[in-house]
Amino acid sequence: MSLTFLLTTLVVVVTPGTGLVYTLAAGIGRGGRASVVAAAGCTLAIVPHVLATVTGLAALLHAGATAFQAVKYAGVAYLLYMAWATLRDKEALTVDAGAAPPALRRVIVTAVLINLLNPKVTIFFLAFLPQFVAPGEPRAALRMLGLGGVFMLVTFVVFAALGVLAASVRDRVIEHPRVMAWLRRTFAGSFLVLGATLASE
After folding, report:
1. Of 133, 139, 154, 194, most Cβ neighbours within 10 A?
2. Domain membership flag for residue 7
């Protein structure tokens, strides 16, 4: 494994995207535990993308305009739903000491769907992983699976760390309604922009 692969992976992971935005939102809105669960969900959703790349399904998806468009617009629709739901749910970024624990099942399901319905992840792996496999390598598939596993590990560690960091400042901003309203609009706007970006590509 090369240093170039690790550095490229780190840059890609820390670049703001749907998964990272949702993990940060979970950290501020629900706390550190929820942010770690969200990070795990986003990481878990990478598995089908890696498998699709290794088995050649990603190439088929990329070549088939109809299939790509269907998956792409399903992802766009879900991102728009997330933007609407974030603006509508004013309780998502509030804290009640006597409230029941957050529904972590809902957090992980949402996190999985966000990354699972993003065809850009599949196309990224299609272009990214083969660059680090030597031509004619007898175990190319196993090597790509290994590289995909490293990418997933880095994703989980970075997402979880940033999510917990966001949760650590939660109590400081939670007492200010205007700040919370601004954060809610920011997260909703982020989902909206990411959805629009995906739709335009």
Report:
1. 194
2. no
